[in-house]
Amino acid sequence: MQTAMKKNKIIVYAVCIFFFLLAGFFQLIDSKLPEFYHALCALLAHTILIALVVIWLFSLVQRMVRKDLKSFFVIVAILILFFLVVRMIKYGLTESIDTLSRYMWYSYYVPQMLIPPTLLLATLSIENTKGKPLNKKWYLVYIPALILLTLIYTNDLHQLVFKLKFSENELTYNHQVVFYIALSWEIIITIISLIMMILKCRVSACKKKTWIPILTFLVCGGLSTMFFVINISAFKIPELLCFTCIMTIESCIGIGLIPTNNNYQEYFYHSKCSAFITDKEFNVKYKSKNALDINKELLETAVEDPIMLNDNIRLLAKKIHGGYVFRCEDLSSINKINAILEETNERILEENDLIEAENEIKEQQSKVDAQKKIYAKIEKITSSELNRLNTLLSEIKKITSSDDFLKKMQFACVLGAYIKRRSNIIILEMKNNLIDVDELALSINESLDYLSLLGVEGSLDFNIEGELSANTIGYIYDFFEKCIVRFYDSPIAIVFHIYNSQNNINVMIESDAKIKDAIEFQEQLQKQFPNSSLKVSDEVTYYSLIIPCGGNL
Question: Lowest-pLDDT range, 172-181, 404-413, 543-552?
């Protein structure tokens, strides 16, 4: 298939070269023929050259995949076509009209000035990201071309391009400085475009063949120069320049410098998929090397719905422009996976009971673990009070005095109330980190109730509301317990204040108890509660604690 495609390409190029030479032959002999045959040969030559360019234009539209590149090269083809049409008008219709003929001659330079910058923009677009437009600053490259064209079309006024000499029978001219500037511009931009196209190529296989477009450009340019110098009537400068441009572009397309869909058939043939493309009558036009041979009846059926050719091969179809594309999908790996899944499902069904039992055990174990965490935290926080309670209960067993027994049992109830309430705060924390401040009020009130058994009068001034973190509530309750719940320095009266001030939570405890080692106790208190303070005034001890904004410790 690859050989057939290359053969077809060679045939197309050979036919184009044949007709190009045929046009040259008509132009070579037309001046030696009678007027009718002279006009006929000239018309045939023009028609052939224009037809070749039109065919090339449509081939570009078919071969160019990227829209940005297609637009640039279509503009080049249109400018070449304009060049040849202007040439036909000049030599066929306006040869006897001096002024019009002269402006047709000036029009030769429209494509000559505009094709090089267009090729340069096309070259820059090749490497550009697909779908990303070219930077508009590059379009400024047209400004020199437009200035030169303006000077060329106004040559009759200043004659800076051609020095015209009018005689009775003919027009002669000499090239001036602007002509050489325009010629240099045309050649330099064309060479820059070709060099940039070669340098920007990242495909090593293409880089090895870059000598082909260079040689094509040099050979065609050399032949054009030679024909111009020796003045062969077979070919004039317009068609020589046009077909030099076409041959250079085609050589770049041929080696892959300019991306086209030329090798798509080859890529499709060598692809690993099993697929083929048919026309509307289900005749195979293109196929991959792994494609299966399938009769038309099955193809017609697959167009409606996918069909299974065997246990592992499914045939799918999709309608496309001009026909259908068919693809054979190998389901063998999927079938193997399905078999494994079926076997696995059977095992899973057998193990469902075991998994359910295991899940129940895990659920129970998670509950046990959660309870263990709660108990461990309660033990850690209330360890000192638990030790005090155990020591106190051990002492109670040895007491003989009823008054002493009663007092210590009452104090044991105070410790028990703290342990119970502190444990409750920890349990609530496991459910929700934020706790209503009423829980703190209840805890302090219960402790005050038990302290009343010891003859302590307690009062609670509670002026906060809302929710606080469980950690903060426990922290305040721990402070209360540290300051008040003592056996030997038990107060007679307690007032517990809590309120908001300057976005802080302030705790103030007033007690009439005297502390023997106040300095040592204050150090211990500040070690556990850094924002706390102790002050004794008029035989009243003031314990204060400030908790930062939001209740965060």
Answer: 543-552
